Amino acid sequence: NPDKSTFCEGDPTFPIELIANVNGTLNPPTGNWGLTSSQTMPDGGFTLNGPTATWDPTGQPIGSYAVLYTYTNPADGCTTSEPAIFNIIPRPDPQAVASATEVCADEEVTISYTRYEDIDLPPNVFSATSAPGLRITTIGEDTKRLTFPNVDMTYDIVVAYDNIPDCDPISETVTIKVNAKPDINLMCGLTEN
Questions:
Q1: Is the pTM higher than 0.85?
Q2: CA-based angle 179:183:188, to the nearest 5?
């Protein structure tokens, strides 16, 4: 079985060399890679050259891809086969939604984000443009509350998932513009008549 057999749709990939280990011999000349009868794609990204083969998942649609390795022992003519099965799974679509994208400094913003639908994973990275006075508070399983300092600034809030099995890290960014409130100083003075 291959070390990595599942890939996330759209992740950058590269051709994978398929190696058969038969009694300690790698890709013996009497082995042969071939498509299985269940193969749905004409080649499914496979390049098969007798005892050697590669699979390139780049651009392949979601689904399962199988190739069959068959070996015939030259000493006794016995034949055995073993399938190699690869899967391309749907890429999760994280979404982060802000309650507002432009606020005054004294207003709070909540960020709600989706969890990965197949396994109950929250994002394990939640970051924001660093600024003194910015506070991020967890207020629910899928929600954060942001309180901003009194400065004119645009914040990029990043919700990142780098813990999804078989997928490269993915993230969603929400931009929030914060408008500082003007400073008001009242002065009292006496007027003479």
A1: no
A2: 160
